[in-house]
Amino acid sequence: MIAILEIVSAIALLVGALFTLVGSYGLLKLDDPMKRLHAPTKAGTLGIGALIMASILHSFTTGIDSVHEILVMAFLFVTAPISAHFVSKVHLHRGTCETPPPPPEDKVWATRGQADDGPLAPDQAQS
Amino acid sequence: MAESQAQDRPKLMRRVFPHPLLTVLLIVVWCVITNSVAPGTIVLGVILGILIPFFTYPYWPHVPRGFRPFKMVSYLFLVIWDILVANVSVAWIVLTKRNSDMRSTWVVIPLDLRTPEAITLLAGTITLTPGTVSADLSDEGHCLLVHALDADDPNAVRDEIKTRYEARLKEIFEYES
């Protein structure tokens, strides 16, 4: 039983390491700033998730049963989208990415509203 | 007199447990942090679960209504499964496709959701599933701007997000309306 757990945790370690590696490789390889944002979300979800899974399984093989690594994953899953959101907001502000299409319903995208284009004016929002 | 007492009771319950689900969540989190389900841990967890919502209530007066926790659990499993599948496909795209071949586009999603919590959860789900990052919200919160890493058809991405995630979130948060 313990041998099976050890094998599974070793596989989880390998999977986690592999996806973190692919995530860092993507960070180097991709050219556009918005595209580059996709790489760390991948490393942050499956990469860290698999490493934490390995940590939990390993704790059961050593007899010190612990599950509080799950909280690390939960907090990471809650905070990772917010940091990604801030990074993409900075790109939108500085115009280092393609200009997004105008929203079909409201006047303007929130980030490109007042700070970039002055007061909310529909004609300015188009530019 | 009896009527006013009957009215006072839910008010009192509301004052002691302003966020009942938050209380349950805090007890579970406390048990997981301390790694035990001993009676002492649970008692301390219950104390924390009552005190923290009670003292933070003035900062968080709006209690979301009509929230369905069991549907939320099945939604969480769906998202975890999607993260696994999408991770593999995006890793394949990053490793094999050349930068010039990737068709990364903006995708605009008109929102049916109106609850702020539901929109936040939808944006978070979109970012967590690899291949899409939610970037911005329109000024009055009726559209979501999403960046897709490699999408042949932005409309297909939009429809998938709307049917797969938004419809479920609408059932979880806004089934009354």
Secondary-structure map:
The complex is a heterodimer of chains A (127) and B (177).
Chain A: H1 2-29, H2 33-36, H3 38-62, H4 69-94, H5 114-117, H6 122-126
Chain B: H1 2-16, H2 20-34, H3 39-56, H4 69-96, E1 105-110, H5 116-128, E2 132-137, E3 143-148, H6 154-173
Antiparallel strand pairs in B: 1-3, 2-3
Helix pairs in contact in B: 2-3, 4-6, 5-6
GO cellular component, one term (chain B): plasma membrane
Keywords (chain B): Cell membrane, Membrane, Transmembrane, Transmembrane helix
Membrane topology (chain B): Multi-pass membrane protein
- Going by CATH, the architecture of the largest domain in chain B would be 2-Layer Sandwich
Helicity range of the residues of chain A? over 70%
User: Structural class from helices and strands of chain B?
Assistant: mainly alpha
Q: Main β-sheet of chain B: number of strands, strand sense, barrel status?
A: 3 strands, antiparallel
Succession of helices and strands of chain A: HHHHHH
Number of domains of chain B: 2
What is the C-alpha radius of gyration of chain B, as a whole number of Å? 21 Å
- Mean of the pLDDT scores of chain B? 82
Oligomer: heterodimer
Rounded Rg of chain A: 21 Å
Tell me the overall shape of chain B.
globular
**Low-pLDDT stretches of chain B:** none
Shape of chain A: elongated
- Could you give the order of the helices and strands of chain B? HHHHEHEEH
Number of strands of chain A: 0
Q: Could you give a short account of the major beta sheet of chain A?
A: none
Number of helices of chain B: 6
Biggest interface, chains and residues, is: A-B, 51 and 38 residues
Got a strand count of chain B?
Answer: 3
SSE class of chain A: mainly alpha
GO molecular function, one term (chain A): sodium:proton antiporter activity
InterPro entries (chain A): PhaG_MnhG_YufB (IPR005133)
Region (Disordered) (chain A): 94-127
Protein name (chain A): Multicomponent K+:H+ antiporter subunit G
